[in-house]
Amino acid sequence: MALQSFALPSPMRIRLLLASWLGLVTVLCLVWMHASAPSVLPRALAVLVLALAIGLVWRMPLWPQGTCLCCTGSQWCLGQGPLALEQRQELAQLAVLMDGQSWILLQAKGLQSPGRSQWLLVAKAANPERWPDIRRVLYSSLAAEPQNIHQV
What we know:
Radius of gyration: 19 Å
């Protein structure tokens, strides 16, 4: 089987999406504060929680720009660029956490650091013409190894 490579979406887009969601939460929090006129402690706590959430989203460890999820037929790996054969990070385990039909959230564990896992997002928008292929390769490889499928 030839190397199958699927580009992961831009990490900046993910951060902007999460920042937009936090912006909505901030607006709702400000409306609540204006309507209910809480004391100083709840206001300070709300501002502290929002600042912490924004800091966490911005510092969230995501994959580098241009990362691709690759399948060699027997091994999943991450690489820079579609055919980065020498710069691949082989994955020991790949599990589906959520399938949103137009996106799939995966949990990947590398061979070099098996105790540490990384979340990956494969989105239809990043590869619309290859989306059916991505799903087929992903689910057929996981079905061959049932211990890698996340138990719901």
